[in-house]
């Protein structure tokens, strides 16, 4: 019989595909057993049932092939949420929490209207709506399967102040005006060496790649934003670590003021924001 302790020892095999092999193994074990991580170390002599061992071996093999843990379990933690994800959605990153943090610090009215462009799993707009229950929040998403996942996440937290709409960027919200627009659009250049990362191989390319320089979608959402923002309305966008200067120039070119780029925990440019006059 295979125990929890014996299963944990296998984590070293994942070093070729993961920077956190032990954590990955713990998460997979917890998923198949249905227990919190603390239980693993309190019950290392527990023998996995035949079905649990079969499920663990299957997931472990897929992880060895580079498939992200979030896709294996179907969930990813973000902000205060545990979000459902699938291979039709980008996996929410810790860096994106900086966007949420800065958005929550803005001087917005209590009943602010907020738009999230390309909402994916709903990570950003659901985090904002849960923190600010009086905000009127909207998320748009062109990919139908991703929108279904976002709706599942919205329903699981009973967030009634969020409306999720199908559509390409602004097309779902014509003639609307907002106090805040947020977006984490694709910003990786086609041919970027980061795309060779085995983990990224499993994520939807449409949520990652944006033209030759990675700026196509950022240009679109930023340059059209003034048409959809109220006076003194704000925009907050995530972008690549080397795109800060270009993104700031885009903000200035369409009339934004108080433009600022914020760095993530690694000290890299990650989020830029600005307000309309």
How much of the sequence is in beta strands?
15-25%
- As laid out across the biggest beta sheet, the strand order is 5-4-3-6-7-9-8
Q: What distance separates the N and C termini? A: 68 Å
Backbone CA Rg: 20 Å
Number of strands: 9
Return the CATH class of the largest domain.
Alpha Beta
Instruction: Assign the CATH topology of the largest domain.
Output: Rossmann fold
Judging by the overall fold, what is the CATH architecture of the largest domain?
A: 3-Layer(aba) Sandwich
CATH homology superfamily name of the largest domain? Vaccinia Virus protein VP39
Count of helical regions: 10
Which spans of ≥5 residues are poorly predicted at pLDDT below 50? none
Which class of secondary structure composition applies to the elements?
Answer: alpha/beta
Strand count, sense and closure of the main sheet? Answer: 7 strands, mixed
Q: SSE order, as H and E?
A: HHHHHEEHEHEHEEHEHEE
Helix-residue proportion: 25-40%
Mean pLDDT: 93
The shape is elongated
Number of structural domains: 2
């Amino acid at each position: 019989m295979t125990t929890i302790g014996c299963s944990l020892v296998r984590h070293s095999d994942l070093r070729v595909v993961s920077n956190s092999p032990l954590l990955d193994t713990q998460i997979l074990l917890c998923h198949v057993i249905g227990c919190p991580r603390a239980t693993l170390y309190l019950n290392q002599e527990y023998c996995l049932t035949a079905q649990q061992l079969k499920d663990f071996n299957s997931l472990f093999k897929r992880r060895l092939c580079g498939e992200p843990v979030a896709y294996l379990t179907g969930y990813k933690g973000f902000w205060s949420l545990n979000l459902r994800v699938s291979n039709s959605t980008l996996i929410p990153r810790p860096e994106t929490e900086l966007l949420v943090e800065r958005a929550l610090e803005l001087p917005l009215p209590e009943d602010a209207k907020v738009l999230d462009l390309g909402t994916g799993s709903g990570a950003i707009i659901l985090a904002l709506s849960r923190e600010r229950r009086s905000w009127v929040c909207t998320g748009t998403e062109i990919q139908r399967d991703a929108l279904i996942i976002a709706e599942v996440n919205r329903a699981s937290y009973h967030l009634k102040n969020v409306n999720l709409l199908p559509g390409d960027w602004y097309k779902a919200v014509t003639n609307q005006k907002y106090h805040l627009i947020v977006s984490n659009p694709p910003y990786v250049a086609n041919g970027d060496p980061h795309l060779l990362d085995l983990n990224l191989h499993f994520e939807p390319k449409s949520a990652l790649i944006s033209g030759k320089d990675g700026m196509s979608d950022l240009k679109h959402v930023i340059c059209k934003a003034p048409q959809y923002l109220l006076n003194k309305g704000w925009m907050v966008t995530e972008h690549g670590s080397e795109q800060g200067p270009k993104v700031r120039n885009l903000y200035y070119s369409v009339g934004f003021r108080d433009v600022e780029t914020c760095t993530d925990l690694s000290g890299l440019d990650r989020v830029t924001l600005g307000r309309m006059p």
